[in-house]
Design a protein that fits this description.
Length: 152
């Protein structure tokens, strides 16, 4: 199985792993799908793929840090699982009261090269129990450090 990244046009090209024939598909109908998809080439070869609709590359990481919810008196620890130029996905090891659309202040240290501490405001996009997806409120500060870290 392989991953295909879409662009703003929602068009992708899938190349058959057996014969190399290229097939273009519209991914609009797969926008909310998180599962693997199956296809079949004209040559009869079946293949599996996953479509990623994200605009920015996301790096799997394991960075510890902390959060505080603005407008609430709650703070806690976090473990960042994914980091991109536009946001983070993290896990709260303890129960929390984070909700969609909350604004959080997050603080964490990069594990390379100079262990730079990052402090950013994020808007919560998704909450699934203890897993939180959040988007950076601004991307200018620390931009060159994150680009270097993610090696974009």
């Amino acid at each position: 199985m392989y991953t295909i990244y879409t662009d703003d046009s929602n068009q992708v090209s899938i190349i058959c792993p057996k014969c190399g024939v290229e097939q273009n598909i519209d991914t609009t109908k797969f926008k909310d799908t998180q599962k693997k998809l199956e296809g079949k080439c004209k040559c009869g070869e079946p293949y599996e793929f996953k479509i990623e609709h994200r605009k920015r590359y996301r790096e799997g990481v394991r960075l510890t840090g902390e959060y505080s919810i603005l407008d609430k008196e709650e703070k806690g620890e976090l473990i960042i699982k994914d980091l991109s130029m536009s946001g983070i996905r993290f896990e709260c090891p303890n129960p929390h009261h984070i909700s969609k659309d909350d604004i959080l202040k997050v603080k964490f240290k990069l594990d390379r090269p100079k262990r730079l501490e990052i402090q950013k405001l994020v808007k919560v996009i998704r909450v699934r129990e203890r897993i939180i997806g959040a988007q950076f409120m601004e991307t200018k500060s620390y931009k060159r450090y994150l680009e270097f870290y993610l090696q974009i």
